[in-house]
Write a structure and sequence with these properties.
- The structure is a single chain.
- By secondary structure, this protein is an alpha+beta fold.
- The chain folds into 2 domains: 175 residues, Aminopeptidase (3-Layer(aba) Sandwich); 141 residues, Aminopeptidase (3-Layer(aba) Sandwich), CATH 3.40.630.
- The protein is 39% helix and 27% strand.
- Strands 1, 2, 3, 4, 5, 6, 7, 8, 9, 10, 11, 12 and 13 form a 13-stranded mixed beta sheet that branches.
- The protein is globular and about 70 Å long.
- 39% of the residues are buried.
- The mean pLDDT is 94.
């Protein structure tokens, strides 16, 4: 099997352009466009190491120090490979990639992949492939992931099952908004001037919100443009008197809705605009998009339990090459620290 590596997406695209048409990605985070966007607008010029296995799978990595890591960061809800062809034996690709890394120059001392779906075949197959190639391998917790499998429910059925405190909050908030003047909710899905204005609203609301400043200010606008072009975009804005006071960025792909970013203006907190907008976005996802699952992506924030009903974990895989000085030292520190925690009863 031939494994090739690239340090630029343009070169990678040329290499796979002659292959059969790529299958549709299972979600936005497993598309080549997502990784290109992240590298260009959501990071500080990463040193790319893009692995291609026989034109069948791409594993987007980046150099960090003397090791390799997944091309991912705090924007990433889920990391995984890109499938270029249908029906290929992925496990064989991962085994070949791991052997390739052990024999490459420079040779990475460590390989760190995150966040991963611990129930996926990629997770288990890559874990075995790394170990078979001679790495010392371990896994670790990344974050909780709250979801709601809709099972064909309408929004009315879903909302009737939410906690009474949440239902009352939304109802009272709508009543307050009705009494305070004109208000509306718009959900943007396509490119154009209306979307540009909605992104302006999002940025203005986000700047006023309780959240820390956006690390890469151009990323969200670029993501909205990409998502609109691919049919993934669901950008909701709640406005009062023509001024946006809450905004949420959702992505919709292959029957699943992903809640990516949300913010509201603290000056409008008495109207609970975030809760009202979430209810509207849920209604659109269930009754219009007919989503099979709604995914809050990362974090165990308490409020997510009111809207969701299932929790799973996203995990990482860390692998150390014990035949390199840096890998051996890092591996001894990692496993030694873990053993010490177990001996002392500290499992945090």
């Amino acid at each position: 099997m031939r494994i090739r590596s690239f340090d630029a997406f343009d070169d990678l695209r040329r290499a796979v352009s002659a292959a059969s048409p790529s299958p549709a990605p299972p979600d936005p985070f497993h598309s080549l466009e997502w990784f290109e966007l992240l590298a260009q607008h959501g990071m500080d010029a990463p040193r790319l190491h893009l692995l291609l296995a026989d034109d069948s799978h791409i594993l987007p990595l980046q150099w960090q120090g003397g090791g390799l890591a997944s091309l991912s960061n705090f924007y990433t809800g889920l990391f995984g490979p890109i499938a270029c062809l249908e029906g290929n034996d992925a496990a064989t690709d991962w085994e070949s990639m791991c052997r390739h890394l052990r024999a490459s120059h420079p040779r990475p001392a460590c390989v760190d992949l995150k966040p991963l779906d611990a129930q996926s075949s990629f997770y288990s197959e890559m874990q075995r492939a790394l170990a078979a190639a001679g790495y010392w391998v371990d896994s670790y917790f990344c974050f909780g992931n709250w979801t709601y499998p809709t099972e064909g429910q309408t929004f009315a059925d879903y909302f009737s099952q939410r906690p009474s405190a949440l239902r009352n909050t939304v109802r009272r908030a709508r009543h307050k908004l009705d009494g305070a003047g004109p208000w509306d909710i718009t959900i943007h899905t396509t490119p154009g001037s209306a979307l540009d204005a909605a992104v302006n609203d999002y940025e203005s609301i986000y700047e006023k919100s309780w959240k820390s400043a956006e690390s890469y200010p151009g990323f969200i606008r670029a993501l909205c443009q990409l998502a609109a072009a691919n049919g993934w975009l669901r950008l909701g804005v709640l406005s009062r008197d023509g001024k946006g006071v809450a905004s949420q960025l959702w992505l919709f792909c292959n029957g699943r809705a992903y809640i990516f970013k949300l913010a509201y203006d603290p000056d409008a907190a008495r109207y609970s605009p975030g809760s009202v907008l979430t209810a509207a976005m849920m209604e659109h996802a269930m009754d219009v998009d007919k989503a099979s699952e709604i995914d809050y992506l990362s974090g165990d924030d308490a409020y997510k339990r009111d809207w969701m009903n299932q929790r799973r974990e996203r995990r990482g895989l860390i692998a150390f090459d014990p035949t390199t000085p840096r890998g051996l030292l890092a591996g001894l520190r990692h496993f030694g620290g873990r053993a010490l925690k177990q001996l002392t009863g500290n499992h945090a």
